[in-house]
């Protein structure tokens, strides 16, 4: 551990030091790595660079191990870290002034800049007439210090405070301007400096070397830790109730850890900027910092959002990078997603792929600043996400607006309070979107689609609340969702054929399948569709969460009735996606996952199926010898995923074939088979034999000669066969069924 491997670079011997005391977790040790790299590069070796190697930071520098340690022991000049705008900072009579007095009066060259900054700050307070406390003069103190401090001192101010037109803004990493409650980081920083450096001589203290080895290489530190606070950066050693093996623990800190941690935090520079997407005049920008989302980690809960300052995503990189390049990464730490700034953890997860790949980042460690032990904030590690190209990340843009609106209505304290089903669905969607951003595989796409469907399902059962808070139906998912999933399961293929289906009931009336699930109106035009809540409601929405077969048969009965009322000839169903006979057979035989099917159905109805149909039309226009002559006017459907027809060779039962021939979309130029609702009503009641006899009679009257006259089918199989009439099939599949179940005979005058 901690060995140095020399290399040669530009005629200079370079040493690689594996700093096992610098790890991504806790946050204090990550900041410590940044502080080491920055200080070595700025004060000793401008060619120094660093990277993350596994779980440790590796420093490459011209300094040997001994020279590196000597630098920090004998030459390191502390950055002026001061906060005269805060109580407890050492500038006011009731503060602990031991450290600030010692540094301010030091004659050592190591404290020249620090002492100068202290004197400047005291003069500012004197000029402003500030006495016992900053009080209402905090803003004036900040502005005055900015005008007189040297660049070294301003580095801390830029990290701790951003001055905007609305006043001072405070980034979460450094609390409220350099303090966390009663803990002032600046005064504690100066006190820890006294632990390791003598202000009179500038020489290291007796324990300084052991503390340094502990900080760099994680060497054991028994017996020499300092009882001092470390704040939110290392919860495991912060002290307090339930932070140790006993009931109460005292914080034990390596002074070098605290010093290097604060030095590293200076790379996180806050800034105020005008944002087009912000309703305010100015918005605070802090590197890789967004609002917390209670999702994406094991203990996640939406209540975490109410008790959190925010969350921060810290970058890890596996190639040696110079300090100025690392500074540039943090300086450009504003992340964009879908053309706007990331607002929360879900946004950041979506933005990771392009952000990381473009900037050489390999991973992000996610932290949340959450309240623990009453009022104290701790930096809690939440998750680690590897950077990679995510081809499916763009899908989430389709859900962005609806998801944001839902989260606003489900946030803690929102009125009226969201029903439990809505809140659970929102949480599931949070997790699913986060998983899609993180994984980007087929399973995560399916999971996100199912979660979105569950939200819509919850809206349908809590429609009064949804309309009261102005939540519109989710709609407009692009056909890209279908391509991303690629028809991976029978459940998906069946649900897709059903979700896009519609009945043409007249010149100006179309009944979309989605209207059987919830109270919505569907409008379309120019290859797109729109959805809104239906007011007043209609009786077409008959879906229920009982048995799947019962629910589908309820929909079938409603479609039969609507077709009769409209006086249509033949079965008027059509869909941009056909089902295949293999999958229908699996449904009839009960070999599908019904819960998965239902979830996918609710998710797939959210797709804009007019766009799917338009793409199908455009695809068929370019195919020679195909089109309306075979498929019928306006029927441009192809089999899912352009798969080889030979891969789907199964033919369902004879009962299915009989019923399907009675309820088919009639090809152009052919006489339709008149609708006989009683056929399906018997099948829906479980009387397959009765349904078969009626179907045979109807087909023979229409000039078709079935090879059978009766079928001893009853019960669940009959009911499932009836429900399967909802799944549209291709004309070529209809021809196969005709060949399978009938003999073609010339029609006589008496037929």
Secondary structural class: alpha+beta
Strand order of the largest sheet: 1-2-4-3-17
Number of helices: 28
- Percentage of residues in helical conformation: 40-55%
Described by the principal axes of the CA atoms, the overall outline is elongated
| Strand residue content | 15-25%
**Rg over C-alpha atoms, rounded to the nearest angstrom:** 35 Å
Unreliable residue stretches: 239-249, 272-283, 625-648, 744-751
Please tally the β strands and state the result: 28
Q: How widely separated are the two ends?
A: 94 Å
The major sheet is characterized as: 5 strands, antiparallel
The count of domains is 3
What is the averaged pLDDT score? 85
In short:
With 751 residues, this protein is of the alpha+beta class. The chain contains 28 helices and 28 strands.
Q: If you had to describe this structure to a student in words, what would you say it looks like?
A:
This protein has 751 residues and is an alpha+beta fold. It has three domains: 4-76 and 268-389, no CATH class; 394-474; 484-744, no CATH class. Helices cover 42% and strands 15% of the residues. A five-stranded antiparallel β-sheet has the order 1-2-4-3-17. Strands 15-16-20-21 form a four-stranded antiparallel β-sheet. Helix 1 crosses helix 9 (255-265) and helix 13 packs across helix 14. The chain is elongated. The N and C termini lie far apart (94 Å). The model is unreliable at 239-249, 272-283, 625-648 and 744-751 (pLDDT under 50).
Features:
42% helix; elongated; 751 residues; 28 helices; 5-stranded antiparallel sheet; alpha+beta; 4-stranded antiparallel sheet
